[in-house]
Amino acid sequence: MDWDDLRVFLAVARAESLSAAARVLKCDAATVGRRVARLEEDLGAKLFLKSPQGYRLTEPGRRLIPHAETAEQAMSGAAEELSGQTGGLSGQIRIGAPDGCANYVLPQVCGAICDANPGLEIQILALPRMVNLSKREADFAITVSRPTGGRLTVQKLADYALHLAGDRSYLAAHPPITALADLRGHRMIGYIPDMIFDRELDYLAETGAPTVDLASNSVAVQMQMVRAGAGLGIVHDFAIPACPDVVRVLPEAIALRRTFWLVRHADDRRSERLTRFAEAFAQATRTEIARLETLAAGQ
């Protein structure tokens, strides 16, 4: 059995299409199809069923997955060992993250890590949804709820604060806000209710604030709405320093605390390279969030 055929098999299983797998593998879909057919012939078993939804694993295909992933880990470990990665980190690492974290924290964190490891390439996948590690969309995922199922390794990344905030221009044009009752009549900014992909993101329901009038599934868009003076919104403290005229409102009455979790596939725990990256990344993230929150408190 050829390892390269197994690599192609895993790419198709994760992408569920020949064309998507081809993009990952940087080859053409016809080549991917031939490699899958060759592996099926070698094994004497059909590994995929083609349907309108894409390529679905058959029962033999599902049984092959853990063996192929074991081979993948072995090849990765061998590459790390032979490359002598005892010093700096190198190669490509992809991180999936909520767009608030991706926009306001990760650029500084990843930039600093790359400065210390010139051979390292970091990709940030910013999505307003959960990242699928089983399909290998990323090496790591940052989540706002601790996952409880699946074959995953989970570690606490950092706690972070959120407050109600508004732009100085909006606050100057509206009556003073000194108590929760004063929020009535103010335009509220938040998530599109039916697109809240994690219960931890339902901020306004927790605070009892009025109904959302301006909404987006993107934290970055919500912050830009606040920055434009369009209303008030619950924002991450670590985002406030990027918007100098945005200030916290009723910080004692409306204060939320959440946690970021760093998640990876359980099979990757044997990768020294990914473990070393996780340690450096967690420390840098905690330090950066603390720095930004200190700046926000001083505004």
Amount of beta strand: 15-25%
Tell me the Rg in angstroms: 23 Å
Number of domains: 2
Helix content: 40-55%
- H/E series: HHHEEHEHHEEEHEHEHEEEH
Average predicted local confidence, pLDDT: 88
- The name CATH uses for the topology of the largest domain is D-Maltodextrin-Binding Protein, domain 2
Number of strand elements: 11
Q: What is the 3D form?
A: elongated
Low-confidence stretches: none
Structural class comes to alpha/beta
Textual characterization of the structure:
The structure is a single chain. The chain has 299 residues and is α/β, with parallel strands linked by helices. It folds into two domains: 3-83, Winged helix-like DNA-binding domain superfamily/Winged helix DNA-binding domain (Arc Repressor Mutant, subunit A, Orthogonal Bundle), CATH 1.10.10; 85-299, D-Maltodextrin-Binding Protein, domain 2. It is 41% helix and 22% strand. It has helices at 3-15, 18-25, 29-43, 59-83, 99-104, 106-116, 168-172, 203-207, 219-227, 272-297, and strands spanning 48-51, 54-57, 91-97, 120-126, 140-143, 152-167, 188-190, 214-215, 232-236, 246-248, 255-265. Strands 3, 4, 5, 6, 7, 8, 9, 10 and 11 form a nine-stranded mixed β-sheet that branches. A two-stranded antiparallel sheet has the order 1-2. A hairpin with a 2-residue loop joins strand 1 and strand 2. The N and C termini lie far apart (62 Å). 34% of the residues are buried. The mean pLDDT is 88.
